[in-house]
Amino acid sequence: MNQTQRNHVAMFTATQTTFNTHQAAIQAIPALAATTNQFSLLFGELTQVQMIQAGQTTGTSALKIKEEAEMIQDTVQMAAAIYVYAIDNNLPDLQARVSISPSELRQMNDEGRKTTCLNIHAEAAKLDGSLTEYGTTPEMIVKLKKEIDDFAALIASPRSAIVTRSQATARLAEIIDQMNHLLRDKADKLMLLLKQNNPEAYNAYKASRIIVDLRGPKKDNGDEE
């Protein structure tokens, strides 16, 4: 990881902390909540890819990281659609059952994560066509089940390595680019909605977005750790 990437990762870490601290204000704006959830997913993947690049995790766990990230992303999106459906149809129990965030899923153990995703899928399968107007198709429900099954098979019987350190290095650059675009194109604009009503959250976000040069002894910008 080169120095520019280190500086961006430090900024992402501060920004993620801000999002976690001001969840209540963020959740009041659905588009902002969706953006921060997407950022959180990318941040989780970024952390895991850094570990692979640094040689701190095995190839077997690398595949698990990939499958897990895909499952979490689709589960959270499915849960969001059901959540809004529950609000529109005055179903508070259903609303409570599908209230889940990426960080909550990542904090669970493998079995708990699998079970929670299966529960979300089961709720989606019951509703099926009723979720179409919320951007969810039957094909997406089938896809989620496959991702859960793939993850379940992986934690039951670990597979061989498919992600190398060089692949992790390439993916790291892609994730950093995606996170920068997400912040510039969405979060920076949506956070302006908090400027008057919640200046504490807005100012904390602005401060976290400053990229500080953490340069130590001079290195070639292309060096990797």
Description:
The structure is a single chain. This protein is an all-alpha fold. It has 2 domains: about 80 residues, no CATH class; about 100 residues, no CATH class. It contains 10 helices and no strands. Helix 1 runs antiparallel to helix 10, helix 3 packs antiparallel against helix 9 and helix 7 runs antiparallel to helix 8. It is flat. The C terminus is likely disordered.
Quick recap of the structure?
The chain has about 220 residues and is mostly helical.
Strand content bin: under 5%
Q: Radius of gyration, Cα only, in angstroms?
A: 19 Å
The general outline is: flat
**Could you give the distance between the termini?**
6 Å
Which characteristics define this entry?
225 residues; mainly alpha; 2 domains; disordered C terminus
